[in-house]
UniProtKB/TrEMBL annotation:
<dbReference type="InterPro" id="IPR017441">
    <property type="entry name" value="Protein_kinase_ATP_BS"/>
</dbReference>
<keyword id="KW-0808">Transferase</keyword>
<dbReference type="Pfam" id="PF13458">
    <property type="entry name" value="Peripla_BP_6"/>
</dbReference>
<keyword id="KW-0547">Nucleotide-binding</keyword>
<dbReference type="InterPro" id="IPR028081">
    <property type="entry name" value="Leu-bd"/>
</dbReference>
<keyword id="KW-0418">Kinase</keyword>
<dbReference type="InterPro" id="IPR028082">
    <property type="entry name" value="Peripla_BP_I"/>
</dbReference>
<feature type="domain" description="Protein kinase">
    <location>
        <begin position="15"/>
        <end position="268"/>
    </location>
</feature>
<dbReference type="GO" id="GO:0005524">
    <property type="term" value="F:ATP binding"/>
</dbReference>
<dbReference type="InterPro" id="IPR000719">
    <property type="entry name" value="Prot_kinase_dom"/>
</dbReference>
<dbReference type="InterPro" id="IPR008271">
    <property type="entry name" value="Ser/Thr_kinase_AS"/>
</dbReference>
<dbReference type="GO" id="GO:0004674">
    <property type="term" value="F:protein serine/threonine kinase activity"/>
</dbReference>
<dbReference type="InterPro" id="IPR011009">
    <property type="entry name" value="Kinase-like_dom_sf"/>
</dbReference>
<keyword id="KW-0732">Signal</keyword>
<dbReference type="Pfam" id="PF00069">
    <property type="entry name" value="Pkinase"/>
</dbReference>
<comment type="similarity">
    <text>Belongs to the leucine-binding protein family.</text>
</comment>
<keyword id="KW-0067">ATP-binding</keyword>
Length: 709
């Protein structure tokens, strides 16, 4: 447990909040104490999800069905409020560690313990399935260990089996590495899917290894569908049954009832799992549970203060971070005046006093490869931010920029990242490079605990403990597109075109899910990026009489597709994503580019409201208007500066200090407001922008969807 964050509530309904257990994509999990003294884990859903009526309906249904799950080994929902401004649900708190933490700390569990684990999780899933649910996210992090047995938690993404609208084809929910083949393919799932995931969990528990390995999300999904699991480290006594759980055909997997029968009722004298003293876990794990239980007994009781009373005072570090965030918010209320209001004219001030400590920010970019133009924009924006920061003599430290060019090469990226990782003066690295290079630079930085602020790559493949994303995930670009398509009258289905590249696969998979959940008619079509003659593919697309065409790929394949579509006479709505927001699309597509509506994660500072001061300063320093990407580079330095300001002593800061607090930082920048998921470093909030191609140029439309297609 960690202390509550400054923006966490002091009370949720009648439960006093004692601290934070974690946070994720959907919300925050808090530790609360009820009026009777019982400890509860309270999941509070983010307000932006609560604003969506469809989500609130799903949440209401899920809570109602989850209350029907009754098993000693499944943690029940004991209270909830689906109508609250931020919906929440509460379950009993289990002080034991999660299975993944246990294996990481104490190593794999012995075979006898895993037999107990399997039998009791099978019993928990029996209750889940009897209630008409499929859990969908059986993974080590959702299995807590207690003295008397495991507990299966988190029905937050479970779905009632009979709610077909909530299990639309194309939906992928759960955790890669533990997903069934049918989940990985986006197909409807049943109880057999949970059995597959349970097999993955048991293999991990006894061997410490995932049966389908590690790596990017897309690779894990592919292996679940096509590859056989690696069970070589699973003991022979368990291997056969685990292998049956991991069978590709659903019909070949055992039922949870068969699993319970195969292992029997564990834990009795002389039976598997019964150790000296009756415990089912090895001694180091049992001690860990006992220590955590003892700490829970030391937590304060509920005070007689009414809900909404004064909470415990935060630490000085959190207080500083909270104050910095509040200052940003207050300044933002004054329109454009928030923007480095105390800075002198850019580039015209004398260097600050030398006694101020100097902190170095690294920038690794593709400055001489395919993304050279974009990386150069990020670099110039970062240089302006450094100059503005140093010109403000009220700042307690100076900043310097160390730039490394990886040319977009994975091999060169690893070498350059090692230089930055080994430089103790570099407190953080801004990544302004392509996907392959981003993946390569992560390993040296992760080994050195050097924080990486990623401004370019939008995939989820490189998430780790040091990675923070200063832009939305690629898939989350689609949220405003879904809002647009559901707000207009379409004359036919939405045809979603996948060009078979990795980027397109991720975009189109999520588009099918989101639009299907919005009850729009969706037709998928595949047009390979390397297909020379696209006329036949375009004929298939037009054969569906589309009300709109959504293209999932990037500019290289989008340009000839747009040309073929225009040549075939289609004049209806066409929509693309960030991968098409590239001047090369305009050049390659020519007049066929006109009319395309694009959603992007890069702003246009020349048209964005409130960016006038930035544009003026940039033009003064570089004698040119800021190109796309410059504002994001400027903001990346601003985020890091805001983070450093929140530390107790910036002058003695190390990169390890920055890792601890970067994801807690909030900053209002030129392009957007920045906030991050504490657990995984993902960007939180909006951060998407609409453009229309008009007369061969991108016309900035703003952050809100246009009124019409």
């Amino acid at each position: 447990m960690r202390p509550a964050a400054p923006n966490d509530p002091a009370w949720v309904a009648g439960y006093r909040i004692l601290g934070r257990l974690g946070s994720g994509g959907m919300g925050t999990v808090l530790l609360g104490r009820g009026p009777d003294g019982a400890l509860l884990a309270i999941k509070v859903i983010r307000a932006e999800y609560a604003d969506e009526p469809a989500f609130r309906r799903r949440f209401r249904r899920e809570v109602a069905v989850a209350r029907q799950v009754t098993s000693r080994w499944a943690v029940p929902v004991v209270d909830a409020d689906a109508e609250a401004p931020s919906p929440w649900l509460a379950t009993p708190f289990v002080p034991g560690p999660a299975l993944d933490e246990t294996v990481a700390t104490a190593g794999p569990l012995p075979e006898a313990s895993v037999r107990v684990l399997g039998a009791r999780l099978a019993e928990a899933l029996t209750a889940v399935h009897a209630a008409g649910l499929v859990h969908r996210d059986v993974k080590p992090g959702n299995v807590l260990l207690a003295h008397d047995g495991p507990r299966l938690i988190d029905f937050g993404i479970a779905r009632a089996l009979h709610e077909t609208a909530l299990t639309a084809t194309g939906s992928i929910l759960g955790s890669p590495g533990y997903l069934s083949p049918e989940q990985a393919r986006g197909l409807p799932v049943g109880p057999a899917s949970d059995v597959f995931s349970l097999g993955c969990v048991l293999a991990f528990a006894v061997s410490g290894q995932r049966p389908f390995g590690t790596g990017p999300v897309e690779a894990l999904l592919y292996r679940a569908v096509h590859d056989e699991p690696d069970l070589s480290a699973v003991p022979v006594g368990l291997r056969s049954l685990v292998a049956r759980c991991l069978a590709k055909p659903e019909s070949a997997r055992p039922t949870v009832a068969e699993l319970r029968a195969a292992w029997g009722e564990p834990g009795g004298p002389g039976e598997p799992g019964a150790e000296a003293g009756g415990g089912w876990l090895p001694a180091p794990v049992a001690r860990l549970i006992a220590e955590r239980s003892a700490r829970m007994l030391q937590l304060p009781p509920v005070e007689p203060t009414a809900p909404g009373g004064v909470r415990a005072r935060p630490s000085r570090r959190r207080l500083l971070l909270g104050t910095a965030g509040a200052a940003v918010g207050l300044a933002a209320a004054g329109g454009g005046a928030w923007w480095w209001s105390s800075r002198p004219t850019a580039g015209g001030a004398e260097p600050p006093a030398p006694e101020r400590p100097l902190l170095t920010v690294g920038l690794q970019g593709d400055l001489s490869g395919p993304l050279a133009e974009v990386a150069a924009a990020h670099r110039s924006g970062a240089e302006l931010a450094i100059a503005d920061h140093n010109a403000d003599d009220k700042q307690p430290f100076r900043l310097a920029l160390r730039v490394e060019d990886d040319a977009g090469s994975a091999e060169e990226a690893a070498r350059r990242a090692r230089l930055l990782a080994d430089d103790d003066a570099v407190v953080a690295v801004i990544a302004a490079t392509g996907p392959e290079a981003t993946g390569a630079l992560m390993t040296p930085c992760a080994e050195a605990r050097k924080p990486v602020l990623n401004v370019t790559d939008g995939s989820s493949a490189h998430l780790n403990a040091v990675h923070t994303m200063a832009r939305p995930l690629d898939a989350l670009q689609l949220r405003p597109v879904v809002a647009l398509l559901t707000s207009v009258a379409l004359t036919g289905p939405v045809v979603i075109v996948d060009d078979t590249t990795l980027y397109s696969w991720d975009i189109t998979r999520n588009a099918r899910t989101a639009l299907g959940d919005a009850e729009l008619t969706v037709v998928p079509e595949v047009v390979p990026a390397d297909e020379v003659d696209r006329s036949a593919a375009v004929a298939r697309v037009l054969g569906h009489a589309p009300g709109a065409v959504l293209y999932g790929g990037e500019w290289e394949a989008a340009a000839p597709f747009a040309a073929a579509l225009a040549e075939a006479g289609y004049r209806g709505p066409t929509i693309g994503t960030r991968g098409m927001h590239d001047p090369r699309f305009l050049d390659a597509a020519g007049p066929a580019a006109d009319g395309w509506l694009l959603v992007s994660t890069v702003t246009d500072p020349l048209a964005a409201p409130g960016a006038e001061a930035f544009v003026e300063a940039y033009a003064e320093r570089f004698d040119a208007p800021p190109p796309p990407g410059a504002a994001e580079g400027y903001d990346a330095v601003g985020v890091l500066a805001r983070c450093l300001e929140g530390l107790d002593d910036p002058g003695s800061v190390s990169h390890r200090d920055v890792v601890e607090v970067l994801r807690l930082t909030r900053h209002r920048g030129v392009a957007k407001e920045y906030a991050f998921e504490e657990e995984n470093g993902l960007f939180v909030g909006g951060g998407t922008f609409f453009y229309r191609v008009e007369d061969g140029a991108f016309t900035f439309l703003g952050t809100e969807p246009p009124n019409s297609l």
